[in-house]
Specification:
The protein is an alpha/beta fold. The chain has 7 helices and 8 strands. The two termini are 30 Å apart.
C-alpha cells in the first residue's frame, strides 16, 4: 500500500503542482496529490513546461480545491508557502503536517521555474523520504594524505552536493570559515543519487569539514 502525501499551497498552480509531479515520478511507494487553499483553477504554463521537459507531466494534473481530495486519508501534508501554512485546515486522524517553503516563480521568467523545480527536487524529496520512510542522509568523513574525502549515502541527491560546492566556490557558502576555504585547492564531486563522494584537496582537517557540514544550509535546510 502506498503512502499518501498532500502538497498544499495557495493557488495550486506552480509549486505544489511541481512537487506533486516530482514525488510521483521519483519516489516509489508514495502517492502524491496537491491542492490550494485558494486555487487559481489553472496550472501555470511554465510549471507544465518544466515538468514536460523533465518527463514528469501527466495530463490529469490540475489546480483544485481541498474538497476534491478530502476523501483521501493522507499520511503526510506538506505546506510549501507561508500563506498555506497559516491557513492550513485541520486534518482528521493523526495526519502529520509539516512546512517547507519555496519561492513562488509565478510571474517570473522560465528560469525561475527551473530553479523551483531543482529546489523542490533537492530539498522536498529527501524530506518526504525521511518523514514517510524513515530514511536519512548518512555522512562519513575520512582524512587522507592530500585532503579529506566525504561519502554521502541514503537520502542524498548528487545535485545537492554539486550546489554546496558551487556555493563554496562562489563565496555564497556560510558554513565554512574563510581560513578553511583558503586551504582547499580543489573540490570534486563523483557518484550518483544515493551514493555521492566529495573529494577535497588541501591542508584541511577532518574536524574543520565536519563542522562545516553541520552548518550547511544545503544539507540542513
Amino acid at each position: 500500500m502506498s503512502n499518501k502525501v498532500l502538497i498544499l499551497c495557495t493557488g495550486n498552480s506552480c509549486r505544489s503542482i511541481i512537487a506533486e509531479a516530482l514525488i510521483n515520478k521519483e519516489l516509489e511507494g508514495i502517492e502524491a496529490h496537491s491542492s490550494g487553499v485558494k486555487p487559481s483553477g489553472k496550472v501555470n504554463p511554465n510549471a507544465q513546461k518544466v515538468l514536460e521537459e523533465n518527463s514528469a507531466w501527466q495530463e490529469h494534473y490540475h489546480s483544485k480545491t481541498l474538497d476534491e481530495v478530502e476523501h483521501i486519508d493522507f499520511d503526510l501534508v506538506v505546506t510549501v508557502c507561508d500563506h498555506a501554512k497559516e491557513h492550513c485546515p485541520i486534518f482528521k486522524g493523526d495526519t502529520k503536517v509539516i512546512h517547507l517553503g519555496f519561492e513562488d516563480p509565478d510571474g517570473e521568467n522560465y528560469e525561475a521555474f527551473e530553479k523551483t523545480y531543482l529546489a523542490i527536487k533537492e530539498q522536498l524529496l529527501p524530506k518526504i523520504k525521511q518523514e514517510l520512510k524513515g530514511e536519512t542522509m548518512q555522512k562519513k568523513v575520512f582524512k587522507i594524505k592530500e585532503g579529506v574525502n566525504i561519502n554521502f549515502t541514503g537520502v542524498v541527491q548528487k545535485q545537492q552536493i554539486v550546489k554546496m560546492v558551487e556555493n563554496c566556490a562562489t563565496g555564497a557558502c556560510e558554513c565554512m570559515s574563510e581560513a578553511t576555504k583558503k586551504k582547499i585547492t580543489n573540490m570534486q564531486v563523483e557518484g550518483k543519487d544515493g551514493d555521492v563522494a566529495l573529494k577535497l584537496s588541501g591542508e584541511i582537517s577532518k574536524e574543520e569539514i565536519e563542522n562545516a557540514l553541520a552548518k550547511s544550509k544545503v544539507l540542513n535546510p
